[in-house]
């Protein structure tokens, strides 16, 4: 049983091996594996994410598993029942793997310490979203062959973003240079210690980027006064056709979805030739198959 | 007439300038004689061979949560007193944020009566600054002090209203009790679960910036200067606070402060992978803060080591980090953590003893804290070199929430004496009943 709680702590060769295996899970690859035949995979989602949940579900079914879905988003965890109570109840149903999405950073770590099956982190608070980072790295590796020496620019609300943290660690481990860009209120301290470079000047750094990854701007950040307005954010940090002009000719644009059209990405960019957003989604299933296989081994 | 003779002890009594091998004679609950020359034991006296041990003034903890009334499942006055004497403390100041707030003589008297029943160590209640700790109306300080409160504090919460803080500093001068403050600007700490820094970023936890504490310390020092009051800053955790307090002391303001052992021992990296046992308010800070606290312990900026002993149940900690309740128990690990600084050469034995006994007694004007003839025989006997491993399951406290479980400590409480009576010896309580 092997958990996947985050990217932190992975060696490069382990990451490369997982991405190599994901390659074999792409449509048209070698014969499908059924390592999870007759086993149960439990999807435990305390936060809405149809996209990630469905992707894991398809991946698990392709490996022969039965999938149980729980959604606690909004309310329905019964009063007084703790996360551990819930996890132990679900463990009693005998799943091989619990996939958990939770709004609290570290929730999967807590569960992993107290259950016997494998735990996969499908996104915890502002901590990590390892399967997303792996599919992003996979998508870039597919284009480039190797990430060595490439510069990936991550733009937006890094403070609240688990995608940014996992990607920073993952891309660095695979040999890329990672530059993080956003307003000072949304770039937390210590990113340099994690290997990132920090800037607030998007236009200055865009020409250096081999790929640009936009983060979703959560609208509730306005109420908390991290930003004056969405309008100002999109002016300063939104990826517009004019800004794409400043990028290297073949640099792709990534986004973990769902997109706020017109805020972090102009519609023309989101649907334009640079966008690899739909490739990301398709690759997600292959990468998650490789993840679940690894947990089962 | 009962007597005890401690022989060949290393007596460390900072207030009276004693640090050397002495015999100490205790008669009728008071120190009778401290002598370089060997003393002859009176008839029927108990003789304690203290060779290799320290005999020091009983420790006093200015910051303890006893949880009674209201949360007796976590701790009671009795279990708290047991933990205290097991940790070498002969006196503790009980915080008023119980689940009937100590904002009236009735609650103060209840705590004192439970302490009399426990009959182990001195319990000095602190009364609330504001009624119900709501931060709105001043509680009746005169009544509280009259009933036995030794300080006023809304600990657990800051006094966010500056005008009200100014008034309590003025008003408390009537009784000359310190106003003890938990410094936290709630607008800066809101939603934070740990210190803001590289670790909070890595873990994706919302950070509490150091400014949440420092800004409030600055505010209260400004108010203190204007009001000529007495301010005691509780559980100072960061470098900026220490710097402001040091300057204020130099300028002659009546400000004192305490530091908790966890803040001078651990930094924010102790959170590790979301260990709720490393969650407290104020949070564990960065390594530069730890260094600054240690310097402040040495140079006299810090007046007392206080544990902020905060007992909580297992289920309060077995949750997502953000939901975990703040606080750790501290009474039974304080000496070991303080002596670690002695063994590392940061503190002299004399300064360590001062921070645990004389300092706190002076700050709150409490009896004890020294061993001059005639003073109460509140005495802690320390085995400074004895190694032991912290086992939270063997705590006398009713709670086990500590990040120090399994840590090896060098230096242990051998005996605790309160008013000339041995209440703790060789790991065992000596209860009167
Ligand atoms: Zn406090």
Automatic annotation (TrEMBL), chain A:
Catalysed reactions, semicolon-separated: carbamoyl phosphate + L-aspartate = N-carbamoyl-L-aspartate + phosphate + H(+)
Encoding gene (name): pyrB
InterPro entries, A to Z: Asp/Orn_carbamoyltranf_P-bd, Asp/Orn_carbamoylTrfase, Asp/Orn_carbamoylTrfase_sf, Asp_carbamoyltransf, Asp_carbamoyltransf_Asp/Orn-bd
NCBIfam families: asp_carb_tr, PRK00856.1
Enzyme class: transferase
Source species of the chain: Corallococcus soli
The protein's role, per its UniProt record: Catalyzes the condensation of carbamoyl phosphate and aspartate to form carbamoyl aspartate and inorganic phosphate, the committed step in the de novo pyrimidine nucleotide biosynthesis pathway.
Protein name: Aspartate carbamoyltransferase
EC assignment: 2.1.3.2
Keyword Transferase among record annotations: yes
């Amino acid at each position: 049983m092997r958990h996947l709680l985050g990217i932190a702590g992975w060696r490069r060769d382990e990451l490369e091996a997982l991405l190599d295996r994901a390659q074999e899970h792409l449509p048209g690859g070698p014969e499908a594996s059924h390592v999870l035949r007759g086993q149960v995979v439990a999807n435990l989602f305390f936060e809405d994410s149809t996209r990630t949940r469905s992707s894991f579900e398809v991946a698990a079914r392709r490996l022969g598993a039965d999938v149980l879905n729980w959604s606690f988003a909004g309310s329905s965890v019964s009063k007084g029942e703790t996360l551990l109570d819930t996890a132990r109840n679900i463990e009693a149903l005998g799943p091989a793997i619990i996939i958990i999405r939770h709004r609290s950073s570290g929730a999967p770590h807590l569960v992993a310490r107290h259950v016997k099956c494998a735990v996969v982190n499908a996104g915890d608070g502002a901590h990590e979203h390892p399967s997303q980072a792996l599919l992003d790295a996979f998508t870039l590796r597919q284009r480039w062959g190797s990430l060595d020496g490439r510069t990936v620019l991550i733009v937006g609300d890094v403070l609240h973003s688990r995608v940014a943290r996992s990607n920073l660690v993952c891309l660095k481990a695979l040999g890329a240079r990672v530059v993080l860009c956003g307003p000072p209120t949304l770039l937390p301290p210590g990113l340099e210690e994690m290997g990132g470079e920090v800037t607030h000047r998007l236009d200055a750094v865009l020409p250096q980027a081999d790929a640009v990854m936009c983060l979703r701007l959560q609208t509730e950040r306005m109420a908390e006064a991290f930003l004056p307005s969405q309008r100002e954010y999109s002016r300063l940090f939104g990826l517009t056709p004019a800004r794409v002009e400043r990028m290297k000719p073949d640099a792709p644009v990534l986004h973990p979805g769902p997109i706020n059209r017109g805020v972090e990405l102009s519609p023309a960019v989101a649907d334009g030739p640079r966008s690899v957003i739909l490739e990301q989604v398709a690759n997600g299933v292959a990468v998650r198959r490789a993840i679940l296989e690894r947990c089962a081994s | 007439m009962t007597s005890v003779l401690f022989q060949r002890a290393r007596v460390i009594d900072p207030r009276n300038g004693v640090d050397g091998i002495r015999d100490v004679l205790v008669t009728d609950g008071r120190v009778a004689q401290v002598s370089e020359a060997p003393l002859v034991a009176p008839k029927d006296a108990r003789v304690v061979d203290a060779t290799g041990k320290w005999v020091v003034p009983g420790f006093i903890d200015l910051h303890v949560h006893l949880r009674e009334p209201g949360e007796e499942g976590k701790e009671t006055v009795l279990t708290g007193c047991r933990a205290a004497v097991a940790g070498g403390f002969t006196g503790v100041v009980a915080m008023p944020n119980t689940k009937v707030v100590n904002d009236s003589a009735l609650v103060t008297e209840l705590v004192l009566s439970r302490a009399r029943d426990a009959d182990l160590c001195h319990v000095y209640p602190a009364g609330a600054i504001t009624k119900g700790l709501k931060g709105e109306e001043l509680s009746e300080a005169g009544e509280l002090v009259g009933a036995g409160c030794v300080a006023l504090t809304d600990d657990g919460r800051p006094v966010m209203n500056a005008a009200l803080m100014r008034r309590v500093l003025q008003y408390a001068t009537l009784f000359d009790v310190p106003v003890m403050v938990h410094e936290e600007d709630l607008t800066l700490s809101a939603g934070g679960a740990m210190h803001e820094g590289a670790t909070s970023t890595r873990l994706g936890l919302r950070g509490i910036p150091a400014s949440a504490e420092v800004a409030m310390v600055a505010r209260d020092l400004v108010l203190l200067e204007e009001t000529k009051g007495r301010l005691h800053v509780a559980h100072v955790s960061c470098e900026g606070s220490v710097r402001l307090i040091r300057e204020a002391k130099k300028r002659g303001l009546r400000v004192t402060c305490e530091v908790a052992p966890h803040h001078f021992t651990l930094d924010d990296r102790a959170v590790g992978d979301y260990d709720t046992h490393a969650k407290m308010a104020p949070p564990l800070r960065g390594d530069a803060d730890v260094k600054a606290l240690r310097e402040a312990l040495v140079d006299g900026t810090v007046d007392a080591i206080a544990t902020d002993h905060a007992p909580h149940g297992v289920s309060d900690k077995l949750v997502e980090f953000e939901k975990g309740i703040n606080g750790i128990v501290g009474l039974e690990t304080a000496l070991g953590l303080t002596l670690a600084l002695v063994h590392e050469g940061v503190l002299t034995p004399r300064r360590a003893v001062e921070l645990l006994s004389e300092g706190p007694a002076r700050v709150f004007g409490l009896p004890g804290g020294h061993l001059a003839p005639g003073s109460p025989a509140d005495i802690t006997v320390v085995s400074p070199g004895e190694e032991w491993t912290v086992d939270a399951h063997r705590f006398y406290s009713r709670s086990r929430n500590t990040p120090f479980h399994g840590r090896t400590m060098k230096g242990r409480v051998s005996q605790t004496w309160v008013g000339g009576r041995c209440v703790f010896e060789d790991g065992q309580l000596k209860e009167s009943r």
